[in-house]
Amino acid sequence: MNFLSEEKKAKLSEVLFYVALTIELGIMLLEKSVIHMYSYQSYVYRLTFLMTLIAVLLLKHDKKEWIIIGAVCAFTFISYRISGKNDLLRYAVFMMAARDIDIKKAMKYILYVSAAGYFLIAFLSVMGKLGVTAQPPHDYGRGVVEMRYELGFGHPNTFYGSVYAFVLLWMWIYGEAATLREWLLVFTLNFMSCVISASRTGMLISFMTFGIGFLARYCKKIGESKIVYILTALVTPVFCVAFSVWSAIVSKVPRYEFEHKHYKFIEWIDSKLNNRIHDLYRETEKHAGSIWTWKLFSDGSSEETFDMGWVRIFYWYGIIPAIVIAALIVLIIYICYKKKDIWTLVIILSLSVYTIVEATFVSEYIGRLFILPVIGAYLGEFVSRKKDGECLKS
């Protein structure tokens, strides 16, 4: 497309990115509801992949960037050919297409499109037009009979996961300038969603997130403290990965093997996680999720799903891709430190901890992982501009 000027190429690249983003958000919203389009999803994914690939090719790159783009595409393509899952390839190209976008504008777009979609799903459910409002009273493995609301999202955890994503988006966009009243309003929305969906995980992690976010809002010096970024790098992904690997190992310990020297400790933790650890081994005949099913690159038979998100990364994509993902998160934390970007740091910390026990953000749906445009822009800036001793700046 040499007939186009660099300015027109950049504009066309941005348009293609937003069209692909809109389609991905639409697929995500349909999947969140009880409406599914499994027969056509693969074709739509090919379309959005092609759009983002063209968007990447339209951007101006130097030799170093082309080498990195080629290496990333080769690695994710090899992963796709071995595992049968093209998720990492699609994610990588999507992030590369986001290099030059206005991330504030993109995140606001994601927030408002997602919020409108979530509201419509809930409204149609309450009106009796889509899905169900609540599940019948039942014992969900917690020893008590309870009613959990899903508001048309197909499952209470899916409903809360959507509210959680909205809250994190709001925090990233408006948290720094929001008033105390606005913080309390969003906190109340989150708290009520936890209560009606009976999401204990959501309650604990969102309380942690709001606590850290509130400190970041009113104690500005926290965002400038190096120790905050170091601690986050230790928790995310070091603790998250370590705990997940440990869970995959001990999942094989029989439920009633009291002779095991650490059995009571394992059983206590597993009870707090609604048997997520033991289910890695005993829920399927293949013992999907236990560490004995992990491979360097997962093969096409690794299709089973379970709740522990970091374990799903290792199982679905393989040990090598999982390690690369963990390393990229550490790199993003480093970039956040250079830019003194406390809000992206808070989101990464919250998502990483949440993903230990919930796999909501480990999926084929690009629209779920709303932070991708920020990561893509930051990595693009890191690769293309950090040279000759130049430091990243906000």
From TrEMBL:
The lineage of its organism: Bacteria, Bacillati, Bacillota, Clostridia, Lachnospirales. Keywords: Membrane, Transmembrane, Transmembrane helix. The keyword Zinc does not apply. This is Uncharacterized protein. The chain crosses the membrane at residues 12-30, 42-59, 66-83, 109-132, 153-173, 185-215, 227-249, 314-335, 342-359, 365-384. The keyword Amino-acid biosynthesis does not apply. It comes from Butyrivibrio hungatei.
